[in-house]
Amino acid sequence: MTVLQRPEPRPGVLSISAYVPGKSHAPGVAKIHKLSSNETPLGPSIKTVAAYRAAGEHLQSYPDGSACELREAIGRVFGLDPDRIVCGAGSDDLLNLLARAYLADGDEAIHTTHAFLVYPIATLGTGATPVVAPEKQLTADVDAILAAVTAKTKVVFLANPNNPTGTYVPFDEVKRLHRGLPAQVLLVLDAAYAEYVQRNDYEAGIELVATSENVVMCRTFSKIHGLAALRLGWLYGPAHIVDALNRIRGPFNVNGPAIAAGIAAIEDSAHLNRSREHNTYWLNWLSQEIGKLGLAVTPSVANFVLIHFPATKGVTAKDADEFLTRRGLILRQVSAYKLPNALRMSVGSEDANRLVVKALSEFLGRRQ
Ligand SMILES: Cc1ncc(COP(=O)(O)O)c(C=O)c1O
């Protein structure tokens, strides 16, 4: 037996490429527009900020470890049983809890080629193996996911809509995926961008969770609710999965100010509608205007666009990123998502959106 000279992490941990968040700085530039993390340009609502500030008066007290009032508020808004909701420190927390509860050494978890990077990270962290199912036209492909299922498969992660592509799987297809999975495989529907989607054939997954034993839906307060800094997410799942997660989560995994702000945010439908309207208008505008410049834009239903650049020296995604960053416009390189020729841009304020289109036009024009 080999005697170790120092502690070694479990198998898989050192194969993890740590998550690299979107840039937030542009050296030497006075005014920056951060469009690299899919944050909302409208920010949180006034009521939400007021609730957060009020909670700041009570920092000496532990929060309610079960986030009962927040779960009840979410339950009221969505018509759900609060006992089947788990809150987490961002949906990242919930995705990791799911991985810890349902994956172990030797198991497999499926995600698609350009899926959200937290899935392989959470999977590898448990000692399990991520299995990649190919996409079709940058969209999750149900047949490919089903073909990747083996006797070792324990979890399927599906971001719907997906980040960074912005594409989605219609609900009929999600149901077909579910029907094709063995009963012991957990289907994780990650609906972080659900509020932005304006398609008749889309559903975040509430109905599927309510009518099955092996589906959960994750949601976040980081995007349309504008609370990314507070780290707050929630999950709706079958009672037996909620029970398992409650056994392993941190006893106070959601902090007090986040609970207070979350309650105000989920109840402020007027703010949510304003944010959605802003997004719908500018998502469409950006897709069209960037398209007119001759750059392909993947049709997106979320709050960001994936812009494709030529591989030609001087006009690559990396060149564009440098050009834009010098002007304080910070987009996201997505090579880690196997998209080296693309940049992801969050829908920003009117000002930021117009500046990016103008800058991209200059970037392309100066080389013609
Ligand atoms: C698909 C997807 N899921 C989950 C998250 C994580 O969100 P949170 O801030 O709630 O951890 C993100 C954030 O970018 C995301 O894009």
Report on this structure.
By secondary structure, the chain is α/β, with parallel strands linked by helices. It is built from 12 helices and 15 strands. The strands form 4 sheets. It has a 7-stranded mixed β-sheet with strand order 2-10-9-8-7-3-4, with helices on both faces. Strands 11-12-15-14 form a 4-stranded antiparallel β-sheet, covered by helices on one side. Helix 1 packs antiparallel against helix 9 and helix 5 packs parallel to helix 6. The chain is globular, with a radius of gyration of 21 Å. The N and C termini lie far apart (65 Å). The structure holds pyridoxal-5'-phosphate (PLP). Pyridoxal-5'-phosphate binds next to helix 3.
Structural descriptors:
368 residues; alpha/beta; seven-stranded mixed sheet; four-stranded antiparallel sheet; 12 helices; 17% strand; binds pyridoxal-5'-phosphate
